[in-house]
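// run 5 | inverse folding | seed 20
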């Protein structure tokens, strides 16, 4: 178990590094959403932007941070471990050139087909609003090249993670947010003078941010030993293996995009602002998903991929189980906290300018139901790359389509009663179904993993989370007036509640001897003692 503990410590350290960078990125992302909330509120212009950005972003999930990234890391790790540095960098050059060309063709097609794509994605009621489809089409055309930058950025991130460099790749999203905020705001004030809507400036800012996300990682990549030598070899077995891994993964991820398509259609049929409320809420829930789930996934994938390449299933099982327990330790209490504090958090972050108290209340409703599935979102982020490492992507595909079916059933049954809240709830329910299916399959694929260890950890986490919630609820009763005071006192109040919750929860987990938390704390003690 010494080796397993060492891996857990290494993953925890790497995840901690990634978490800090992701936290920075997500905070900047919230600042970006604040800019949208203040300038555009939840209505015509922002609804159009959300739908327009969703189209290239949908393809980004397929080609970039989803299928391509996971497939590339699995193959790149194998090359790095078994084929030597020269072959590894040749593969990297071949992949970059091939996908730059492919994504350029996809982008040109997307620009040409922007109008029918927009009309396919939205409900007839959206189309009937004068000028809304035309604005959405223009924004789609402007933002489509974002796909190229962000997908190549994901490949570069995979290279750096495999080489043990985590901080700069995780900070890359911060470069995107800074570029989109500074560039977008500047252009949003300038373009109306030339007859263009202000929201067009934010669309151009998205392009600037995408370019910076790619360019910001390149100096670190060159320091890691990479040298760009353009080549295109379609017969390269490494490239073919990546494509072979990607095809079923793209099919599976397309199911996720079908869910987004279904949800967008349903949201655009609800009252105006529903698309925006759901988008603001999902942006907030992305913070713990990124800081916890994505960070642990990024940190654990190279370790799991190395064990898969070495055929060491015992260490792979231990690493996976420990990573999953770590995710539960962080996401379950976050769900409880978001449910209780959703409205004050949204009020502090967004309720300025055009964003009204009604928008706050409706966004908070969506956030609560998204929070229900937080543990499943983060766990699936950890589980799917394990299938890539095992060179088997069939089951994530099946799980994705089961999630589509579950989502359609849930949202159809509840949309009439719950409106936009039904979409958040059905999304969480579908992800929980996805998680349960993958858990069963992975148990069989890995020839079993320690369920007793996993369930013991979950029981301790739930126990600590419930006690934390009771304490937080008592504090909220006695200090409720904080949220009727000035914005400064509201911010102080939220930070006091969060700090109290984290302290209570952390102490309880340490007393309950949850290994993952105890290991991290012990390593911090050793570091400071040293």
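// decoded
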């Amino acid at each position: 178990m010494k080796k397993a503990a060492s891996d857990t410590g290494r993953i925890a350290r790497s995840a901690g590094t990634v978490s800090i960078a992701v936290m920075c990125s997500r905070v900047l992302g919230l600042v970006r959403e604040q800019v949208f909330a203040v300038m555009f509120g939840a209505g015509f212009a922002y609804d159009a932007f959300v739908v327009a950005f969703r189209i290239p972003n949908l393809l980004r999930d397929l080609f970039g941070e989803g299928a391509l990234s996971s497939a590339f890391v699995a193959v790149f790790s194998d090359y790095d471990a078994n084929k030597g540095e020269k072959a590894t960098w040749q593969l990297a050059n071949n992949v970059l050139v091939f996908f730059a060309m492919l994504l350029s063709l996809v982008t040109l097609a997307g620009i040409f087909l922007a109008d029918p794509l927009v009309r396919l994605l939205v409900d007839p009621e959206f189309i009937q609003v004068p000028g809304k489809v035309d604005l959405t089409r223009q924004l789609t055309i402007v933002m489509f090249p974002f796909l190229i930058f962000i997908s190549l950025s994901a490949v570069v991130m995979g290279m750096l993670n495999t080489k043990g460099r985590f901080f700069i790749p995780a900070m890359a999203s911060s470069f995107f947010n800074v570029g989109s905020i500074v560039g977008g705001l500047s252009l949003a004030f300038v373009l109306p003078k030339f007859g263009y809507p202000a929201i067009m400036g934010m669309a151009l800012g998205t392009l600037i941010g995408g370019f910076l996300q790619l360019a910001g990682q390149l100096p670190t990549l060159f320091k890691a030993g990479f040298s760009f030598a353009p080549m295109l070899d379609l017969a390269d077995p490494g490239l073919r293996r990546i494509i072979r891994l990607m095809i079923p993964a793209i099919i599976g991820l397309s199911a996720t995009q079908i869910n987004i398509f279904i949800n967008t259609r349903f949201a655009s049929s609800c009252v105006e602002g529903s698309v925006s409320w759901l988008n603001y809420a999902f942006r907030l829930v992305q913070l713990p998903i990124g800081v916890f789930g994505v960070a642990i996934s990024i940190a654990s994938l190279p370790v799991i991929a190395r064990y898969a390449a070495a055929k060491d299933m015992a260490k792979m099982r231990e690493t996976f189980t420990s990573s999953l327990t770590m995710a539960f330790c962080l996401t379950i209490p976050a769900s409880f906290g978001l449910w209780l504090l959703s409205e004050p958090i949204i009020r502090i972050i967004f309720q300025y300018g055009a964003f009204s108290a009604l928008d706050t209340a409706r966004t908070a409703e969506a956030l609560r139901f998204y929070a229900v599935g937080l543990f499943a979102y983060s766990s699936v982020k950890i589980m799917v790359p394990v299938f890539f490492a095992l060179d088997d992507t069939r089951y994530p595909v099946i799980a994705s389509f089961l999630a589509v079916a579950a989502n359609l059933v849930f949202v159809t049954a509840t949309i009439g009663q719950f409106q936009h809240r039904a979409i958040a709830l059905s999304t969480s329910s579908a992800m929980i179904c996805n998680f349960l299916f993958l858990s069963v399959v992975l148990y069989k694929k890995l020839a079993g993993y320690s369920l007793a260890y996993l369930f013991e950890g979950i029981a301790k986490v739930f126990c600590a989370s419930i006690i934390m919630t009771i304490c937080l609820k008592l504090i909220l009763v006695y200090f409720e007036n904080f949220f009727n005071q000035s914005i400064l006192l509201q911010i102080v109040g939220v930070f006091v509640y969060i700090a109290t919750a984290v302290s209570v929860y952390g102490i309880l987990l340490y007393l309950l001897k949850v290994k993952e938390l105890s290991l991290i704390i012990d390593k911090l003690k050793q570091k400071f003692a040293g």
